[in-house]
Amino acid sequence: MALEMRDRCERCETALPQTSSARICSYECTFCVSCSEAMRETCPNCGGELVARPRRASAPAAG
């Protein structure tokens, strides 16, 4: 089961490409680092901890 890699901060709507730093909770709520810090690393939706979103490796080149 893969994480849903959301492309916008749920609080400020800042774009969050897959290569950017972002924070997520266990329900995959997604926030930019600035908003996460302002919310003291706590998800406003579920009260869970916001942690660094993992980054996906880039797709292998077609050969």
- Beta-strand percent range: 5-15%
Average predicted local confidence, pLDDT:
90
Helix and strand run: EEHE
How many angstroms separate the termini? 27 Å
Main sheet specs:
3 strands, antiparallel
Structural class: little secondary structure
Query: What is the number of strand segments?
Result: 3
Rg over CA atoms, rounded to whole Å, is: 13 Å
Structure explained in plain terms:
With 63 residues, the chain is low in regular secondary structure. Helix content is 10%, strand content 10%.
Record the SSE blueprint:
Blueprint: E1 23-24, E2 30-31, H1 33-38, E3 51-52
Antiparallel strand pairs: 1-2, 1-3
Label this structure with key terms.
single chain; 63 residues; little secondary structure; 3-stranded antiparallel beta sheet; 1 helix; 3 strands; globular
